[in-house]
Design a protein that fits this description.
alpha+beta; 137 residues; Jelly Rolls; globular; 4-stranded antiparallel β-sheet
């Protein structure tokens, strides 16, 4: 079972190129959760402290009644609330059954400190989102 999770994690852009040691570290720090369709990972307005990476499945991102988009394997959510403790700015709901990697604040910060490549990919993803929002507005 561990090997299959390692392989699935390595295929995600955020962890591509990570060493065996780094992947093992992520799996030690994170919870790997199987989630059902309609499960809410993040609810707009809540103060929570989890970061999620989708390993399998698809989720919708909504603000109010407006669909902002869909996310799938390799995409992530929840990082803003861990970097700036403010209420969640969107709701993320699974639209299919799936698997997610879940990290709480302490584990997330440990990965940022211990894995520079993870930090760079996270920052690149944040920059990409800012650019996408800028293009839409």
């Amino acid at each position: 079972m561990r090997r299959r999770r390692d392989d699935r994690l390595r295929r995600l852009p955020m962890f591509r190129g990570s060493s065996d040691h780094e992947v093992a570290r992520v799996l030690r720090l994170a919870d790997v959760l199987d989630v059902a369709s309609q499960h809410v990972l993040v609810r707009e307005g809540d103060y929570t402290s989890e970061f999620y990476v989708l390993v399998a499945g698809q989720a919708s991102v909504t603000r109010g009644d407006r669909l902002l988009g869909l996310i799938g394997p390799g995409d992530y959510c929840g990082e803003l609330a861990l970097l700036d403790p403010a209420p969640r700015n969107a709701t993320v709901t699974m639209v299919t059954d799936g698997t997610v990697l879940s990290l709480c604040r302490r584990e997330f910060e440990t990965l940022l400190d211990d894995m520079p490549a993870f930090s760079r990919r996270l920052l690149a993803g944040l920059a990409r989102r800012v650019h996408e929002v800028d293009v839409r507005t």
